[in-house]
Amino acid sequence: MHTLPELPYPLDALEPHISRETLDYHYGKHHRAYVNKLNELVKGTDYENVSLEEVIRATRPAPGHSSPVYNNAAQAWNHAFYWQCLTPQQGSPQAGLQRALSAAFGSLDDFQQQFSRAAVGTFGSGWAWLVTGKDRGLEIITTGNADNPLAGDRVPLLTCDVWEHAYYIDYRNARAEYLDAFWKIINWDFVAERYGQLHESSNAA
Fold this sequence. Notes:
Blueprint: H1 20-42, H2 52-59, H3 68-84, H4 95-105, H5 108-120, E1 126-132, E2 138-144, E3 155-161, H6 168-171, H7 175-182, H8 188-204
Antiparallel strand pairs: 1-2, 1-3
Helix pairs in contact: 1-3, 2-3, 4-5
């Protein structure tokens, strides 16, 4: 049985960048619907009591095919991760993370500009991601619809939801304005923690 995780902040905590009304719909209706539909689909199957990560890796369809279980599991995971990437407490990247971003993209500003271009340029619905792979290098990628980097052996560090339901109430069709607001509520501590954990596990191995 999969559950809807609690938001790590009140519904109005991200205002004025993301409104309470948006979170009411985005979290309270869209995210909840993905979890409920997933539970309906996996009831009585091998996927009922395993983690979302395992479901995602096991059910990703071949190109050109569709999997309702994968779509709903990936969207449930993507949204839970997205909420963790946001915070009402504005901050900046820790020194180690900032050095890594600068080494990979030129500077922190360059990273933000490249990430925003990727997010704004995503055709239709999808997600923009900062990920790292087995070589610990940093990369910006986008995925369409529900697709998730976990199925491709990448580790997500940061994501931005660019489905219209993430921003249409607040910004209508101005996705670029939503991205401008996105950078003001990034949970850099969360991103740095994930990046640090990856390096610790790599060093331990």
